[in-house]
Specification:
By secondary structure, the chain is of the alpha/beta class. The chain has a single domain, classed as Rossmann fold (3-Layer(aba) Sandwich). The chain contains six helices and five strands. Helix 4 links the parallel strand 3 and strand 4. The chain starts with 12 loop residues before the first helix and ends with a helix.
Length: 167
């Protein structure tokens, strides 16, 4: 005997489309506490700096206010399709992707794929960098899609997130 859920039986196409639109709007708005759901895309070599950023967002005295839907631990798999499915689901649950750009991000096939996947899903995408200026090389998808780049400044990042979430 199966569980609940119904699987959408009995809904018309219009009803399904309306429910989908309601769900998308709820994701766009975030959790209801004013926070946006974000996915952070970064090269593995930058994990320490991204964890610092995450820590700043958890600090109640910080201007950074978002729910982090990105991966906390890498997938324990060599199966690229499995990894893509897991990342795709995290991106789907977010309204904005923040790309941490460094000298490592341009060489990361995953960062470029995550940018492209976010854009294909209609998510807002912004990039941030820690240094005085962004690195010389950026992931190709950033230039192709004119992804805005902001410095690691809490107010600037949150302004960019708000603007990107409004898409």
């Amino acid at each position: 005997m199966g569980g609940g859920g119904g699987g959408g039986r009995g809904l018309t196409l219009d009803e399904k489309a309306r429910l989908e639109q309601i769900a998308k709007e709820a994701l766009r708005k975030g959790s209801g506490d004013g926070r946006k759901n974000v996915f952070i895309s970064f090269a593995t070599e930058d994990l320490d700096e991204v964890n610092l950023f995450r820590g700043q967002a958890r600090n109640e005295n910080s201007d950074l206010e978002f729910n982090d839907w990105s991966l906390q631990e890498p997938f324990d798999s060599r199966n690229a399709d499995y990894i893509r499915r897991g990342i795709r689901e995290r991106i789907r649950q977010s309204s904005v992707t923040i790309v941490y750009v460094s000298e490592h991000s341009a060489a990361s096939k995953w960062v470029d794929w995550e940018i492209r996947e976010s854009i294909a899903m209609g998510k807002g995408v912004i990039a941030m960098h820690k240094s005085d200026r962004p690195p010389g090389r950026l992931p190709p998808a950033m230039a192709e899609h004119k992804v805005p780049v902001v410095p690691w400044n809490h107010k600037g990042i949150m302004d960019a997130v708000e603007k990107a979430a409004g898409k």
